[in-house]
Amino acid sequence: MKDFEKQINYTFNNKNLLRQALTHSSFANEHKGSNVKHNERLEFLGDAVLSIVVAEYIYENCPELPEGELTKLRSALVCEKALYKFGKMINLGSYLYLSKGEKNGGGADRPSIVSDAFEAVIAAIYLDGGMEPAKKHILRFVIPEIKSQNKKPFKDYKTTLQEIVQKNPGERIDYKLVSESGPDHDKHFVFEVRLNSNVIGKGGGRSKKEAEQNAAREALELMGY
Fold it and tell me: What is the pLDDT of residues 11-30, one digit of tens each?
């Protein structure tokens, strides 16, 4: 466990939490009567912590993304495939407590087992040290994953609409804020997109950029794109 703590750059105050996070249910079943706890409950909590940390990061750092694209991006960052990749980066499988049968069957490299354990480790860090170290641990993997993507993970509807309109000289697109509601920490904006003063789309969002993107998306849909 000391080697694993070096891998994740975090030292546990409660070593039992780490041991539980690394213990697969097969190992616990193999050692019934020994009060061995497996990591399934921690996995449940870790999934929730992971989701809120990723959602908060992309919400704050991807202001141009509409709600639907934020959801897609978050899903791509918290899915089994991504978590298995993150787990492989810290050689997580080699530190897991598995039953003899599971170990011999390649369980240490099984995506479902490694990804679940990755979430359990997140929960263990959260319970041991709080949100900040858990957040630091998660973003260590998430931020490079976002940056490594060579293309935008979203469709820039405003740019697409502008390019279509520019094909007709004299046409002009502009966006107008038509409503703003909610407290400062939870604003909701509604924008209209207009073509030569005619409303061709309307959209809402928690930021002005998101609302404009949604308005442009509706305009494109109504235009048949």
Answer: 999 999 999 999 999 999 99
Q: Distance of alpha carbon 132 from its chain centroid, rounded?
A: 17
Q: How many residues does the chain have?
A: 225
Active-site residue identified among 30, 40, 47, 80: 47
Annotation marks residue 47 as catalytic: yes
Q: Which one-letter DSSP state was computed for residue 217?
A: H
**In 22-177, which residue ranges form alpha helices assigned H by DSSP?**
25-30, 40-61, 67-78, 80-89, 100-104, 111-129, 131-147, 157-165
Is the backbone of residue 120 left (phi > 0), alpha (psi -120 to 50) or beta? alpha
Residue 149 is predicted with a pLDDT of 62
What burial letters (b/e) apply to 41-77, b meaning 16+ CB within 10 Å? Answer: ebbebbbebbbebbbebbbeebeebbeebbeebbeeb
What predicted TM-score, i.e. pTM, was given to this entire model?
0.67
222 vs 117, residue with greater confidence: 117
Catalytic residue among 116, 119, 192, 212: 119
Residue 145 contacts by C-beta under 8 Å, 6 or more apart in sequence?
Answer: 77, 82, 85, 86
Rounded to whole angstroms, how far apart are CA atoms 213 and 26? Answer: 48
- Looking at the predicted structure, is the pLDDT value of residue 152 above 80? no
